Amino acid sequence: xxxxxxxxxxxxxxxxxxxxxxxxxxxxxxxxxxxxxxxxxxxxxxxxxxxxxxxxxxxxxxxxxx
Length: 66
Known about the structure:
- By secondary structure, the protein is of the alpha+beta class.
- It has a domain at 1-11 and 39-66.
- Helices cover 24% and strands 9% of the residues.
- It has two helices and two strands; from the N terminus they run αββα.
- It is globular, with a radius of gyration of 13 Å.
């Protein structure tokens, strides 16, 4: 359900959908802030994609949130 809510939010806020705020790369207080180019590790799936690639649920290759 959270994915569905996020999809609806992106549809209603097109200028905000590609931004991230807060959070750190390592989830440690002193680690650098996360950026759109930081890779996400899918723990054993051998898929490492930048955060920015995964934020857009409405783009030309949607992540099946419909």
